[in-house]
Amino acid sequence: MTSGPAPAAPGPARADSGPVLAASGIGKRFGRRVVLDGADLSARSGEIVAVVGENGAGKTTLLRVCAGLLRPDTGRVVRSGRVGYCPQEPVLLERLSARDHLVLFGGAAGWDRERSLSTGTRLLEALGFAGRSRVPARRLSGGGRQKLNLVLSLLGDPGVLLLDEPYQGLDHGSYAGFWELAGTWRDDGKAVVVVTHMLAELWRADRVIEVAA
Ligand SMILES: Nc1ncnc2c1ncn2[C@@H]1O[C@H](COP(=O)(O)OP(=O)(O)OP(=O)(O)O)[C@@H](O)[C@H]1O
Q1: Which residue lies with its CA nearest to atom 4 of ligand 1?
Q2: Pfam families attached here (predicted)?
């Protein structure tokens, strides 16, 4: 794994503060396959960090380790504050509506029903998710499911966002909207980590970290 500066640095990264996420020397193997070997990833409040690398390089694995969902074989992860995690594949309860999900996930993050619904609905609308908030998740389009998946990671107002290709299935307008929103989250002081294959968008990141295969 290597890390280096992004082509441009558009954000107000709070360089004076320490990282709110610091994963260092992460090693992970599945059976005989070594997926990560001494990987590092850090993020500060007020910056967007893009994580890039070939298919199978271990980006999702590294994000899951950072989220605390997977125990690394070596290395350590230090996080401060709440972490929001948007998995690559939406994990939804198929019989529940988007509103039900907002209440359920918002409640798990410590928010009451009203705040979960108002904030979650505002975020869904900002992503162009309209008029489908009361239908079961199984009847949502792929893009609709992905928008809900992304919004669920934001409930509870996490200081660290770990987003694993969060725009899959989004139409062009929603995709552009996602990056605009990511900029506002960064400006609000969140540390936004985005796994992405969209190299044309790397100018939006403050730093780029490459996971080597
Ligand atoms: N639970 C698991 N058990 C066994 N192998 C796994 C497991 N999770 C991931 N792997 C393997 O680890 C390797 C890295 O997977 P990972 O999903 O982290 O890569 P990635 O860089 O995110 O890939 P992509 O760009 O395709 O999303 C792959 O070979 C994958 O098959």
Answers
A1: 30
A2: ABC_tran
> Which one of 1, 60, 211 would you pick to mutate in the ligand 1 pocket, going by the greatest count of ligand atoms within 8 A of its CB?
60
Structural domains of the chain ordered from first start: 2-81+159-210 (3.40.50.300)
Report the atom number in ligand 1 closest to the C-alpha of 63. Answer: 18
- Using CA atoms, how far apart are residues 22 and 26, in angstroms rounded to an integer? 10
Give the model confidence (pLDDT) of 191-205 as tens digits: 999 999 988 889 999
pLDDT at 41 over 70: yes
Assigned token pair, 164: 């694993």
Q: What angle do CA 49, 5, 207 make, to 5 degrees?
A: 10
Give the other-Cβ count within 10 Å of 191's Cβ: 30
- Tell me, letter by letter, the H, E, C secondary structure of 20-48: CEEEEEEEEEECCEEEEEEEEEEECCCEE
197 CA: nearest ligand 1 atom: 25
Q: Which residues form ligand 1's pocket by a CB distance below 6 Å?
A: 30, 35, 53, 55-61
- Atom of ligand 1 minimally distant from the CA of 195: 22
Amino acid (one-letter) located at 116: S
ipTM of the complex: 0.97
